[in-house]
Each structure stands twice: as C-alpha cells, then as structure tokens.
Amino acid sequence: MNQLGIHTFAIAPEWQNETMERALPGLHDLGIRLVEIPLLRPNELDASAARTLAERNKMELVCSLGLPGHLRIVEQGDEVVAFLRSALEVTARTGASSLSGVLYGTLGYTSGKPRTELEMDAVCHVLERAARIALEHRLSIGIEPCNRYETHLLNRARDAHEVVERIGAENLFIHLDTYHMNIEEESFAAGFGDAGKYLGYVHLSESHRGVPGRGMINWPSVMMSLAKLGYNGPLVLESFNFLHPDIASGLAVWHPVTDDPDSVLSVGVPFLAKVARDAGIILEPRNEEVLGMGKSVPVRSSPITPPLN
C-alpha cells in the first residue's frame, strides 16, 4: 500500500509551524499521509515542534535538500559531510525516516562538461560517509538524479543505481522525480526499471511543476509502470507552487506555475489519486473514494517568492 504525500512547496516556500498547523488537518482530509520538509537551512528548523505537529495530525515526515551554493563536493568533501551530518541530526529530531534529494550537488550548478571520474569518486565517498552517519540515527538516505540543466553529476536512474551499487550501504535508496525523468529517461517504465529494487521514493511532478494533469506528463504511464514494478513506497506531489528564494534561481522558476495556487491541491491530489487507483495502486487510506473530498487546505495567497538577484 502506497502513501500519498505532499512537498511543503505546494503550500508555502518553507516549513513554518504556524502555516503548517493550519494546513495539516486539511491535508489529512485530502488523503495525504506524508509531508516532505525541505531543509534549505537545517539549523533554522524547529525540529521538535515539527515532530509534535506531525504526530498530532497523524502525518509522517521526510526531509530533503540540495547542497548550499558555496559547497563543491570534490574540493570540499569534509565540509559537505559536516553539512549533511547537521541535516541528518535535524532530520532525526523531526522523527522523519529519511533524508533525500540532491545530497551530492548544488541545484543549478554545472561544470559545463560531462562529469569526471574524480567527481564520481567524490560523490560516492561523501555519500558513503553520510550513509554511515544516517545509520547512527536509524535513517535512510535517498539519492535523487536531476535533469542536465540543474546538475551534470547524476541525471538518470541508472546513474543513481551505479552509486548505490558502488557504495553498497543498506540504508541507501533511489529517489526519482517525474519532472526530471520526463527530460532524461527514454520512458517512465525504463527509468523506474533502472532503479529497480532500490526505488524508495517518487516525486509526482508535472512537466511545468504546476497542477498535475494540466501538463505534458503521461500519468497513466507513470502509475502503470510503478504498479508493474510492484512499488509500494511514497508517492509525493511536488509542485513549485511556492518557492524559497534560496533555490528559485537554481531551479529556473521565474513565474508562478499556476494562476490558481489552490488548484495544486484541490485538483492535483484527487487527479493523482484517481490515476493511481486506475492503475491498480492501493493508497493509504484504503477508502480512496474520500480522497479529495475533505475541506480545503489553506495555502499562501501570493505566488512564488521571486528569486534573489
């Protein structure tokens, strides 16, 4: 049985306990059972309060991040590990089960050349160290390949598979995102298949990062491929409805992804639930007919936070 989840950016540009306290009850009514917290600045999150809030609303948490812009994995491996250690400690305090994302690079940074063996060695060395730290906190680490415009290091599921196999840590998994897959993979079936047994987390993101079902993603293909694979992990709607200025530029988000921010949830969640159900995927809660029938979820009324100049 799969959990339907939501990324914080669908509601607000960052996790703030006041905002999420208002939003979580409505999310629960929509059938959401998991919320992803972006750790843009890990030490600024009140992790204990986030944990209490999630537990009160019967939500599970996961955390994610990309490396800060000043860190380079080859030249500053020790500093990257120190940053990840801090993020993993915060993740553990939230009660989350995992930290995933672009833990190996900065979103929006590319060398302008194909990745080198030196870079691949550095990625594996850093993630191996991070996996050992995560194990101390009983956490898993997810590796998310991203499209060629956001990183030159890991772009496809097969790239992440190579890293996981090379490191060999039992608490590593692959985190795939339909937005990136739509650019980099030959098909959704091929991408999910390349991840194989290591697939542990999926971002459901439309081609324009807006409302699922109103873009170019072939959602029946996504869901049928996952069902055929027997995937039973989280399915997490990621929309850049609201975006923190720290990463807006790196993700090249220059304008609102929808004219109606509320529709990301009110339209997107029921749409994804129906397509999943049609493919034979069983969602938690089992009574999937209630999905999308709950009360509305309050979101920030303004569009994305503009990127910093």
Largest sheet, spatial ordering of strands: 1-2-3-4-5-6-7-8
What's the name of the CATH homologous superfamily?
Answer: Divalent-metal-dependent TIM barrel enzymes
Cα-to-Cα separation, first versus last residue: 44 Å
- Strand residue percentage: 5-15%
Mean pLDDT: 91
Annotation, overall tally of beta strands:
9
Give the structural class. Answer: alpha/beta
Please outline the major beta sheet.
8 strands, parallel, barrel
State the CATH architecture: Alpha-Beta Barrel
Overall spatial form = globular
Number of helices: 11
Count structural domains: 1
CATH topology description:
TIM Barrel
- What string gives the helices and strands in order? EHEHEHEHEHEHHEHEHHHE
